[in-house]
């Protein structure tokens, strides 16, 4: 850390500079040192201003990122709760649809079986049992008893 320089220290520094540089060059040296110190102060002020602007931009960006993060988090929570709420209902609906599909499939199978029974030629024993008459030969194409 830099310590503060008091009046006594400044007088000692000026006396040493006077002996080293000489009385002719001391005013030029003091002017050069003053310009260097002023330039250094300007540079430090510029850097400080840029850092303040950057920190303000960072704060703005940081607040925007926080807003987006909160929006995304809320959206994910909402979507998750919607999915969790819909799962049981969808599960029951899916089971109901599966049950209806099975019933419809069974009905179609029964209709196919009935259609096959009607289109199949009857044997003489089946015809006799239905009509309660003696067995006769049947015509395979018409399904009627030949006489």
Overall geometry comes to rod-shaped
Low-confidence stretches: none
Protein structure class: mainly alpha
Mean pLDDT: 75
* Major pleated sheet: none
* Number of alpha- plus pi-helical segments: 3
Element-level helix/strand string: HHH
Q: How far is the N terminus from the C terminus?
A: 131 Å
Q: What is the rounded Rg? A: 53 Å
Total number of strands: 0
Tell me the strand percentage band. Answer: under 5%
How much helical structure, as a percent, in the residues? over 70%
How would you characterize the overall build of this protein?
By secondary structure, the chain is mainly alpha-helical. Helices cover 80% and strands 0% of the residues. The protein contains three helices and no strands. The protein has helices at 7-21, 26-119, 124-131. The protein is rod-shaped, with a radius of gyration of 53 Å. The model has no long low-confidence stretch (mean pLDDT 75).
Name the descriptors:
3 helices
Helices and strands in order:
Layout: H1 7-21, H2 26-119, H3 124-131
Tell me briefly what this model is:
80% of the residues lie in helices and 0% in strands. It is mostly helical.
């Amino acid at each position: 850390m830099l310590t503060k320089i008091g009046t006594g220290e400044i007088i000692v520094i000026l006396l040493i500079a006077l002996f080293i540089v000489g009385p002719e060059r001391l005013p030029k040296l003091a002017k050069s040192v003053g310009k260097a110190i002023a330039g250094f102060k300007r540079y430090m002020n510029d850097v400080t201003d840029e850092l303040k602007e950057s920190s303000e931009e960072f704060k703005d960006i940081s607040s925007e990122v926080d807003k987006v993060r909160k929006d995304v988090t809320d959206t994910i929570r909402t979507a998750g709760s919607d999915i969790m709420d819909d799962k049981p209902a969808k599960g029951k609906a899916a089971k109901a649809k599966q049950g209806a599909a099975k019933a419809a499939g069974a009905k179609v199978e029964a209709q196919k079986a009935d259609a096959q029974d009607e289109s199949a030629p009857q044997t003489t024993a089946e015809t006799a049992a239905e009509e309660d008459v003696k067995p006769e030969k049947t015509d395979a194409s018409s399904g009627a008893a030949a006489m």
